[in-house]
Write a structure and sequence with these properties.
Layout: E1 7-8, E2 22-24, E3 38-42, E4 47-54, E5 57-65, E6 70-75, E7 81-85, E8 92-95
Antiparallel strand pairs: 1-5, 2-3, 3-4, 4-5, 6-7, 7-8
Length: 98
C-alpha cells in the first residue's frame, strides 16, 4: 500500500477481528522488528494482520496466513507475540524472532 493509498486507522478492515482482538507492539520493544505496529487477529481471514503506522494513518498492511482462525493477539512482557486460535481445540502459540 503506497503513501497515496494510506488509510485512516479507524477504517474497518475486512477479515479482521473486532479491534479489541489486537495488540500494538510498543516502542519500548526495541528488539522487535514489528515495533510500533498493530497486530490483529483475523477470524474469517485466518490470518495475523500487521498494520504499519505513519502517525495515525496505516502505511502498510501485511497478512500472514496462519491456517486457523486467530481469536486474539497480545504482546508478552518479553516482547513475544502470543496468538490464541479459535475452535474446540484452541491453542496458545508463542511467536518469537528467528
Amino acid at each position: 500500500m503506497g503513501r497515496a493509498q494510506s488509510k485512516e486507522l479507524a477504517t474497518l478492515l475486512p477479515g479482521a477481528a473486532p479491534p479489541e482482538c489486537g495488540e500494538r507492539i510498543g516502542p519500548e520493544k526495541e528488539a522487535s522488528s514489528w515495533k510500533g505496529s498493530i497486530l490483529l487477529g483475523g477470524l474469517s481471514s485466518r490470518a495475523l494482520i500487521r498494520l504499519t503506522l505513519d502517525g495515525r494513518r496505516v502505511s502498510d498492511e501485511e497478512r500472514l496466513n496462519m491456517g486457523f482462525r486467530v481469536r486474539d493477539v497480545i504482546e508478552a512482557p518479553d516482547g513475544a507475540v502470543l496468538l490464541l486460535s479459535d475452535g474446540s481445540n484452541g491453542e496458545l502459540l508463542r511467536l518469537t524472532p528467528a
